Amino acid sequence: MATQHTHQEHLSYVVFITAAAAIGGFLFGYDSSVINGAVVGIQRHFQVGPVQTGVVVAIALLGSAVGAWFGGNLADRWGRTRSMQVAALLFAVSSIGQMLPFAIWDLALWRVIAGFAIGMASVLGPAYIAEVAPPAYRGRLGSFQQLAIVLGIAVSQLVNYVIARLAGGAVNNHLWVLQAWQWMLGACAVPALLYLMFALVIPESPRYLIMAGKARRAREVLAEVEGEDTDLDARIAEIQHVVRTQRVPGLRDLRGPALGLLPIVWAGIVLSAFQQLVGINVIFYYSSVLWQSVGINQSDSLLISFSSSIINIIGTFIAISLVDRIGRRPLLLIGSAGMALSLATAAWAFSAPRVNRGGVVALPDPQGPIALVAANLFVLFFALSWGVVVWVLLGEMFPNRIRAAALGVAAAAQWLANWAVTVSFPALAAWNLPVTYAAYAVFAALSFVFVLRRIKETKGRKLEEMG
């Protein structure tokens, strides 16, 4: 009985430090989506058009790409927890900067800094979790990162809605001394400070401690996360051996006959790109603007955005429960088919001629309700498939000798595709919204063909068999 109680305490501690590290994912989701509520306020406050708006919204993604690129090196130099603390401080400071911009370029600069912090956190969280999680629980604990991302999206939408309501329903209305959209961006400092607080109390990764020559402290942490019944001497020796002999793969290891890269690397790049080219982040960055463009008021558009975030969470739980049961490929194929149909339906609905209802331009019935349902079905199909499964596949599909380098290249492709979609949507939507959604539907259909022809099932296979 005492042993069972000790095991539960040990597991609870591991869950606590894993959840604390996953707050970086929460910041990722929160920052990705908080701009959704502020877009209209930024446009009106600074009197900028769709092109400038797209640049300001998307520029954080370029900062994220840089932060992710350097995050691993900084973690090896400073340690995992110290790097988390730096990321948290950068995000907190940039949140205040975004809250109090004096010009549009000033806002863009603070968003780049926020993006850099998010890029760091997006690398640090999964790395830390993988290094502290006991092997028996690594898969489930690793899913905390994606769950934290979708929770961050949902909470930011709810906070945006509450702030807009307090300001009388319009994001340019004043709430005390600032406009509502400024409070939305400034509220990001709260989860950033929470991340900092937890990063100050969780233990350093045993792997980093051994790299830094602190084997005694590494032994103490291993005893805390894996239990006293673990052969600690053997675990220390195993990590020391890996640290001494492991060669970090470089870009030269990815070279191959297919346009300069190995076919499996191209498969990972295209898989990452398709995850973004279906337009999922348009929903989380611009859905408030989207629904206002078809006649829904600001306050209600933010509430709709929050409901989409809840659907995103539900879909993520579905994916987590099914990915090891029915496999990766079937989930991706189901998601691609569902996204293609729902996006095509949304494109048809948005093509309806606008009608004037009491001075407000809106979609007619039944196209209005159909567009709303189609958009939320798109979110559901994405969340239960591509949202989770792509990250699972990217961690599994590459051979051991190139996994780290190939994963970095594929992740960079995802950031760039995300940036391209995000920066182009305002101008494309202003030009022709139905055609824009039809293009996303085409990418979803192409993703179905790509998975069918190029992606192999990894369920139940050892990592050593990949390649």
UniProtKB/TrEMBL annotation:
<feature type="transmembrane region" description="Helical">
    <location>
        <begin position="330"/>
        <end position="350"/>
    </location>
</feature>
<feature type="transmembrane region" description="Helical">
    <location>
        <begin position="110"/>
        <end position="129"/>
    </location>
</feature>
<dbReference type="InterPro" id="IPR020846">
    <property type="entry name" value="MFS_dom"/>
</dbReference>
<dbReference type="Pfam" id="PF00083">
    <property type="entry name" value="Sugar_tr"/>
</dbReference>
<feature type="domain" description="Major facilitator superfamily (MFS) profile">
    <location>
        <begin position="17"/>
        <end position="459"/>
    </location>
</feature>
<feature type="transmembrane region" description="Helical">
    <location>
        <begin position="12"/>
        <end position="30"/>
    </location>
</feature>
<keyword id="KW-0813">Transport</keyword>
<dbReference type="InterPro" id="IPR050814">
    <property type="entry name" value="Myo-inositol_Transporter"/>
</dbReference>
<feature type="transmembrane region" description="Helical">
    <location>
        <begin position="50"/>
        <end position="72"/>
    </location>
</feature>
<keyword id="KW-0812">Transmembrane</keyword>
<protein>
    <submittedName>
        <fullName>Sugar porter family MFS transporter</fullName>
    </submittedName>
</protein>
<dbReference type="InterPro" id="IPR005829">
    <property type="entry name" value="Sugar_transporter_CS"/>
</dbReference>
<feature type="transmembrane region" description="Helical">
    <location>
        <begin position="261"/>
        <end position="286"/>
    </location>
</feature>
<feature type="transmembrane region" description="Helical">
    <location>
        <begin position="406"/>
        <end position="429"/>
    </location>
</feature>
<dbReference type="InterPro" id="IPR005828">
    <property type="entry name" value="MFS_sugar_transport-like"/>
</dbReference>
<feature type="transmembrane region" description="Helical">
    <location>
        <begin position="183"/>
        <end position="202"/>
    </location>
</feature>
<keyword id="KW-1133">Transmembrane helix</keyword>
<comment type="similarity">
    <text>Belongs to the major facilitator superfamily. Sugar transporter (TC 2.A.1.1) family.</text>
</comment>
<keyword id="KW-1003">Cell membrane</keyword>
<feature type="transmembrane region" description="Helical">
    <location>
        <begin position="302"/>
        <end position="323"/>
    </location>
</feature>
<feature type="transmembrane region" description="Helical">
    <location>
        <begin position="370"/>
        <end position="394"/>
    </location>
</feature>
<dbReference type="InterPro" id="IPR036259">
    <property type="entry name" value="MFS_trans_sf"/>
</dbReference>
<dbReference type="InterPro" id="IPR047984">
    <property type="entry name" value="XylE-like"/>
</dbReference>
<feature type="transmembrane region" description="Helical">
    <location>
        <begin position="141"/>
        <end position="163"/>
    </location>
</feature>
<dbReference type="InterPro" id="IPR003663">
    <property type="entry name" value="Sugar/inositol_transpt"/>
</dbReference>
<feature type="transmembrane region" description="Helical">
    <location>
        <begin position="84"/>
        <end position="104"/>
    </location>
</feature>
<feature type="transmembrane region" description="Helical">
    <location>
        <begin position="435"/>
        <end position="452"/>
    </location>
</feature>
<keyword id="KW-0472">Membrane</keyword>
